[in-house]
Amino acid sequence: MIGSNDARNVIQACKICHGREGSLQRFREMMFGSGRSYRYFLCAGCGCLQLCDEVSSAEQYPSGYYAYRPKLRGRFAAGLRRLRNRGVFRSRVLGWVAGLFAPDRMRGAEPWFRHLGLRADSRILDVGCGTAELLRDLADAGYCNVLGIDPYLPRAVLAELPSFVRAIPLDEVSGEYDVIMFHHSLEHMPDQEKVLRQAAKLLRPGGVCLVRIPVFPSFAWDRYRENWVQLDAPRHLFVHSRKSLGIIAKQAGLEIERVDFDSTEFQFTGSELYSRGLALSELERAFSRRECRAFRRQARQLNRDERGDQAVFFLRKAG
After folding, report:
1. CB atoms within 10 A of CB 181
2. How many CA atoms lie within 13 A of 99 on its CB side?
3. Cα 130 from chain centre
4. How far apart, in whole angstroms, are the C-alpha atoms of residue 74 and residue 113?
5. What angle do helix axes 75-90 and 92-101 make, rounded to 10 degrees?
6. How far, in whole angstroms, is CA 268 from its chain's centroid?
7. Higher pLDDT, 87 or 54
8. Cβ 42 vs Cβ 30: under 8 Å
9. What percent of the chain has pLDDT over 70?
10. What is the pTM of this model?
11. What phi, psi does 8 have (nearest 5°)?
């Protein structure tokens, strides 16, 4: 760690609260195993971690980055998933039964949307949607007004995706939306306040911006420090605290209405791998089912205690 006086030589001011006091941290790239070190500024004022070094998109997202790999499913598995998706929002029993056999359960989506009170024709925008897994689930469930955008989608991948997915930036989107979602995408964007301002302009009065992000600090950070999997240097440009996210939300004309912690066992499995010097490719065979169940139980308790390592923020636009 480097003191605040040295920090000023690298960062003029925090990009969130504009404070000048803080410390420098160094974190390594670990997902792809390059081991390259990057400097992050930890603001003493708002608690936000932010990348100091300039990096290229090719350096951040090498070929094969997981978010742009469509998941292939057989007809039977795809049919079960569609049945599950319809059941999730219409019949909890049907959705639960289908979910026992369908791959990739839609974890957490039901309570978000029940809280928002959305209808089948509600206008939904997903920013940084990747291969649009969630949007395809929502379309299967009967939502007919969905749009996903991701300017970094490779052309070959985009050609395989539904027509409601486009490779455009947020500032090229028009119209008015009931909900705008950032599912672990906001932390990848360089101008945080600008992005939320653009989202707020696209929301109808009373609309909600739903932001899912890693949060700092957390139990996982306290335990694993530089091996905490959610640091994800240099892809995560910002790792917010609740305070820092509240600051940029207010600057964008949004208010935090609700915060739900939704961390998973990944905070343990991924961080344990990094602590052992292993890559994420080892994840599926590194832990027993019993260990994973124990990690899930611990994650649920941390969420109840508001000490999980990620959360979903409901940001409401004034009506």
Report:
1. 26
2. 18
3. 11
4. 28
5. 150
6. 17
7. 54
8. no
9. 81
10. 0.87
11. -65, -25
